[in-house]
Amino acid sequence: MKKFRPIKIAIMGFKNSHVMGIFDVVKSSPYYELIAVSFDKESKVLIEESYHDSTFFDKYPHYYSDEEMLDSHPEIELCICGAENSEHFKQYKLCAERGINVIMMKIPTLDMEEYDEMLRLEKESGVKIYIELEMRWFATVERIKEIINSGELGEITSITAYNYSHFPMWWLPWMNIPEKSYGKRLQLYPNAEKFRGGALTDHPHVFDLIRYITDLEFDSVYAETAPSMREEALVEDLVYVIGKLKNGTIISLDPSFANREIKQFNLDSNKDRLSHYPEAVQVGLSVCGTKGSLISDLYNPNTTEQLRFEDFEYRVNPRFYDLLNPRVSFMESVAKNLRNNKQEDLWISLEKHKKTMQVINACYESIYKGERVKI
To answer: What is the pTM of this model?
Structure first.
């Protein structure tokens, strides 16, 4: 059996809600060696409070400067860019200049000029970049794609999906700052008091899943926002999208911050909300075809089969669903890609993901213009 050489990994920034999940994976993974972490002082306090451990980061070399961390550890092979969306481009440049591979959070940037510069730097530097959209590693998603490809449902006529969640603005304040979440302050529509950078920006998963399970691209979209359910929200929290794929399949998507969080419930702690309906996150997907249809609850905590990477091969292991597991599969896939220099079907490249970002921008354009927008 070939011995796996752990990948030396670092984490820049702890602002993104998904970073802690990946951190929990890599700190104990046999495929990774966590070299160092960097963050601002505010993030350090928030993280230590969430773990109830003021010495939490004493276990790892840590820095308050991304540049200092990278310069101090030339052995780093892979870095997670986990700051606010607005900082991803800067973090990526720091890594590309040093030849360090990158894991980017779900929104690399919504500025297409920055996106094109990222693609140029990727080609010029030779670094690999992976987009963290862990829902592709859900076994339920793989099964849905398998059923569609089998022809069991016939010709697909429509797909509906929703990605409801709390609005993390209360514990991640930057997500309610348009300049940090979207990258700039742009009104949702003329004379609007709200700006781009809310639910659409935080929930690219449903757009990516549609492209993934159908192997098709979006043709056009029409999007609308509703009056906010949170007075403090500066960005959209309720939004609905209808559209069409290139083959004519009708798409209906709801990526809203539709579930009330502790601020609305007046609960005492974040822990209390876990016992209340609705849940923090709910994701559903329905597919209709000429021969049949399917309905799935992607976040329902039932027993499922989840892809796992072992000894350079994928195994299917039945286990109880939890949020950590898809990220384990994702991180193991990245390890396999880097050490074997291979690209798996589930791997999301920067170039592939750009089309999802273009669809989201088209939704914002539709909201602004009040009309259907061709992709």
So the answer is: 0.89
